[in-house]
């Protein structure tokens, strides 16, 4: 057996080392023209959305990364909003090169950016050919970002424009967080202290039912609430659901202090089942029962979304021992208000993959 010498095959210079016998043997063999070696580009992972535990494990396997380096990397990504790994100045050149070899940073693409006359800003963010809408709602004492959790939705609530778009797919954790990173980047809102941030609150109230994409939504919540991550207090985050009862209590247990919003829309089962079809599976009695359990685990209040006789109904709920807020709609002129979000993304496959037909836990 002999090894092929690339320099010999290509006629380029040789520093020696091979015996003349080896070279003669090679010269007498018709081995044809060597085809150029084309390196296949390595698929890199998006650093946005990788949990601290997974990143620690992955970088430990790569070597040369002490555990405190993970906090430094997270600080560059989530606190400073730095997208260029070359600018991670407290890492060595070797570490930066290793990171670049295996990872990239991607918020998605900014496909449109609209401003309402009331200051509400709606952005359309693209991910691998699909698009979702994200809405920023400025108020006197806070700025709330409404993020999407799915492209389309299976639930078909009658009041909701998203419900007319079939479910295309669940967003992954990078895509849920990418919306936040994109909005914060557009508003130059990185690197500030909590008090000075424009985006102070987050609501999972955009396209899709977040509890039907629990795995990705909860992974995003962990990074949002990690002090080394996006460092948002749980009390500044609200998850909105049309009433996926089995996961409301789990959300409360895993994220004590987080806010919950319920799209109630009617106070009796007959009407609610017509407006919010999921009510047929989990009727109002079960929903209220689980909300009471949730409120025992959480100090934060529950928001009820119900246009008719809202004050009257809110007082009934409040008398039952729940803290209730009545939510206002914003950004109606740019179709950014609750229930007005819809994109052009369409479902390609004819049948729903089984994993999307059930709750993603
Ligand atoms: S309200 Fe929520 S759950 Fe109902 S169709 Fe719209 S996005 Fe889906």
Account of the protein in words:
With about 350 residues, the chain is of the alpha/beta class. It folds into 3 domains: about 1-40, no CATH class; about 45-105, DNA polymerase, domain 1; about 110-355, TIM Barrel (Alpha-Beta Barrel), CATH 3.20.20.70. About 35% of the residues lie in helices and about 15% in strands. It is built from 12 helices and 13 strands. The strands form 3 sheets. It has a 9-stranded mixed β-sheet with strand order 3-4-5-6-9-10-11-12-13, covered by helices on one side. A hairpin with a 4-residue loop joins strand 5 and strand 6 (about 145). Helix 6 crosses helix 7. The protein is globular, with a radius of gyration of 26 Å. Residues about 1-35 and about 350-360 have low confidence and may be disordered. Iron/sulfur cluster binds near residues 157 and 242. One of its GO terms (molecular function) is 4 iron, 4 sulfur cluster binding. Pfam families: Radical_SAM, RlmN_N. InterPro entries: Aldolase_TIM (IPR013785), Methyltransferase_A (IPR040072), RlmN_N (IPR048641), rRNA_lsu_MTrfase_RlmN/Cfr (IPR004383), rSAM (IPR007197), rSAM_sf (IPR058240). It is found in: Cytoplasm. Its main location: cytoplasm.
